Amino acid sequence: MKTKKLGEEGEQTYALVFEAGDDVVPCILEFARNGRLTAAHFSGIGGFSDAVLGYFDVASKQYRPIAIHEQVEVVSMIGDVAIADDEPALHAHVVVGLADGSVRAGHLLEAHVRPTLEIVLMQSPSSLRRRMDRATGLPLLDLEL
């Protein structure tokens, strides 16, 4: 993955350009750790060779995996980075298009890039924290921290 900082003051903007084979989630988290990101949001487009999306089952409080074992277009990818347990935590959703024009969507659990993925990430000068919510079993943004 290659990166470029696009500004110098206030909210910082970065372009992240992934290469074929890059493992998306670990790459974003590594960028967040190295850049000491404490709050950011992003959007992206591109393609995946394969992916695992998730549908959150409220009753079981677990993600049901949606495995995709084919080339797809990343039609939309949005998400944020916040701090959870003193580490950057990623929350991202994607919509991917299959060759027949149908789509799959969900929480991004895992994906590999092919041929590229382009993300524009905006880093806030503030920080966001996540705290485990017992009712849902999810690490939700806590605006009180």
Task: Write up what this structure looks like.
The mean pLDDT is about 95. The strands form two sheets. Strands 1, 2, 3, 4, 5, 6 and 7 form a seven-stranded antiparallel β-sheet that branches. Strands 8-9 form a two-stranded antiparallel sheet. The protein is built from one helix and nine strands. It is mainly β and about 140 residues long. The chain has one helix at about 25-35; strands spanning about 1-5, 10-20, 40-55, 60-70, 70-85, 85-95, 105-125, 130-135, 140.
Structural class: mainly beta
Helical content (DSSP H or I, runs of 4+): under 10%
CA gyration radius, whole angstroms? 15 Å
Q: Can you identify the CATH class?
A: Alpha Beta
Kindly give the count of domains: 1
Give the name of the CATH superfamily. Answer: Hypothetical protein, similar to alpha- acetolactate decarboxylase, domain 2
According to CATH, what is the topology? Answer: 60s Ribosomal Protein L30, Chain: A
Number of helices: 1
Relative strand content: over 45%
Order of helices and strands: EEHEEEEEEE
Overall mean pLDDT stands at 94
Distance between the termini: 32 Å
The biggest sheet, with number of strands, parallel, antiparallel or mixed sense and barrel status, is: 7 strands, antiparallel
Q: List segments where confidence is low: pLDDT < 50 over at least 5 consecutive residues.
A: none
CATH architecture: 2-Layer Sandwich
**Broad shape:** flat
Q: Strand tally, please?
A: 9
